[in-house]
Specification:
This protein has 147 residues and is mainly beta. 13% of the residues lie in helices and 40% in strands. It is built from two helices and twelve strands; from the N terminus they run H-E-E-E-E-E-E-E-E-E-E-E-E-H. The strands form three sheets. A five-stranded antiparallel sheet has the order 1-9-6-11-4, with no helix packed on it. A five-stranded antiparallel sheet has the order 8-7-10-5-12. A hairpin with a 4-residue loop joins strand 7 and strand 8. The longest helix has 12 residues. The two termini are 15 Å apart. Bound molecules: thymidine-5'-diphosphate. Thymidine-5'-diphosphate binds next to strand 4 and strand 5.
Length: 147
């Protein structure tokens, strides 16, 4: 499946998920359900907050992990890179907008607002061996899969 995506050599697409806002005049509510509005089983949820100004995080890809990132408060930006193309300045600033980050995508996050709470839904438990933290190695792996 990963191999297929890389071979196709299509232009990199950013995949957003727009969550339906429920509730009424008193409250807004978003419900997240695995395999319904999230395209995988959710094994882990974490959130990033209290990020200091000018901090850039991420700098890794995952071999298998899929994630959906939702900025439930404040704003932040993403850079995504599939080893051939990169898209910068992807803004997350709405609690009803999710960014799908599939396997073998390099990501960096930056420009966190002081109040930013970035919620991340993940398809796997935390596993350090799934991380690729070296960009050159990541590109080599993408190139290797293509051959
Ligand atoms: P890290 O992956 O370095 O954060 P980021 O890439 O977003 O800057 O994670 C920071 C720390 O938290 C690191 O010590 C690993 C730990 N951690 C967990 O224990 N479980 C998790 O699910 C995540 C994402 C991180």
């Amino acid at each position: 499946c990963i191999i297929q995506k890389l071979i196709q050599g299509k232009k990199m697409k950013i995949k957003f998920i727009n969550f339906e806002i429920k509730g009424d005049e008193r409250v807004s509510l978003i419900a997240i359900e695995e395999l319904k509005n999230i395209p995988f089983e959710i094994k882990r949820v974490y959130y990033i907050f209290n990020t200091k100004p000018n901090v850039r995080r991420g700098f890794h890809a995952h071999k298998n992990l899929k994630q959906v990132a939702i900025c439930v408060k404040g704003s932040c930006k993403f850079l995504l890179d599939n080893g051939k193309e990169r898209i910068d300045e992807i803004v997350l600033n709405k609690p009803n907008k999710g960014l799908l980050i599939e396997e073998m995508i390099w990501r960096e996050m930056y420009d966190f607002s002081e109040d930013c709470v970035l919620l991340v839904l993940a398809s796997e438990f935390y596993d350090e061996s799934d991380y690729i933290r070296d960009y050159e190695e990541f590109v080599r792996m993408v190139e290797g899969v293509k051959k």
